[in-house]
């Protein structure tokens, strides 16, 4: 039996969302580029674009359409060190350690971009990462998602694809899944042990209806 403990990242392991802080630190030498992301954000609020397009547009505005991957990787490592030092919930670290002690393979499954999630995961000692895939052409990072945004139903589909690649049959796996957000309801429903972590109101209500445990993490 394979034991898997799958964690969402933003506001589950971390206390805050990470994309906007990453953009802010990346673009601090050119703050007008960060300010320009207000435009796409307003389009998203008005439901003129979806989350995937919002990511692509804000990435292009702050990082550029084709930055050198070496530059992005260096800044992602610096950002990851800051997140690991200042923004990871202590209770999340304790739970990860407990899952490992119980023989679980710890994973991240997050809608955040893979190019800055992987350094954060590495800082936490997590090797297995499912995240929104970025597009690489040669030595350049392109402002385009390579496939689907790892969100909602797509996150569960990407987890299932990962299981298939690893040769793990669902019936041979026991899965714990942790998330703060109702968008992860498909994966919470699918997991053997779903946990709502410091949930927002919609997930708190759903967890009560479903009988899912609620964990309040500092």
List the helices and strands and how they pair.
Blueprint: E1 2-7, H1 19-26, H2 31-35, H3 38-45, H4 51-63, H5 69-86, H6 90-101, E2 105-113, H7 114-123, E3 128-132, E4 134-137, E5 140-145, H8 153-166, E6 173-179, H9 185-190, E7 193-197, H10 201-210, E8 214-215
Parallel strand pairs: 1-2, 1-6, 2-3, 6-7, 7-8
Antiparallel strand pairs: 4-5
Helix pairs in contact: 3-4, 5-7
Description:
By secondary structure, the protein is an alpha/beta fold. 48% of the residues lie in helices and 20% in strands. The strands form two sheets. It has a six-stranded parallel beta sheet. Strand 2, helix 7 and strand 3 (128-132) form a beta-alpha-beta unit. The chain is globular.
Kindly estimate the percentage of residues that lie in beta strands according to DSSP.
15-25%
DSSP summary, beta strand count: 8
Radius of gyration: 17 Å
Uncertain residue ranges: none
How far apart the termini lie comes to 32 Å
Structural category is alpha/beta
Helix and strand run: EHHHHHHEHEEEHEHEHE
Q: Which overall shape is indicated by the principal axes computed on the Cα atoms?
A: globular
Largest sheet: 6 strands, parallel
Strand order of the largest sheet: 3-2-1-6-7-8
What would the average pLDDT be, to the nearest integer? Answer: 96
Helix content: 40-55%
Tally of alpha and pi helices: 10
């Amino acid at each position: 039996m394979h034991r898997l403990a799958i964690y969402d990242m933003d506001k589950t392991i971390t206390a805050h969302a990470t994309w906007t802080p990453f953009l802010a630190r990346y673009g601090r030498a050119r703050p007008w580029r960060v300010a320009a992301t207000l435009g796409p954000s307003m389009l998203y609020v008005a439901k003129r674009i979806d989350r995937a397009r919002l990511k692509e547009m804000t990435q292009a505005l702050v990082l550029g359409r084709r930055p050198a991957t070496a530059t992005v990787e260096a800044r992602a490592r610096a950002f990851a060190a800051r997140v690991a030092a200042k923004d990871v919930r202590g209770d999340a670290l304790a739970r990860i350690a407990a899952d490992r002690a119980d023989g679980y393979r710890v994973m991240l499954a997050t809608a955040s971009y893979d190019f800055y999630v992987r350094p954060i995961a590495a800082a936490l000692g997590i090797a297995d990462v499912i995240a929104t895939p970025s597009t690489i052409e040669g030595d350049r990072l392109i402002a385009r998602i390579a496939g689907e945004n790892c969100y909602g139903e797509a996150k569960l589909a990407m987890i299932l694809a990962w299981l298939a690649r690893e040769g793990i049959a669902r019936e041979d796996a026991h899965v714990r899944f942790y998330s703060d957000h109702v968008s992860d309801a498909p994966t919470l429903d699918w997991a053997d042990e779903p946990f709502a972590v410091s949930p927002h109101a919609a997930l708190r209500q759903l967890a009560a209806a479903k009988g899912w445990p609620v964990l309040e993490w500092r």
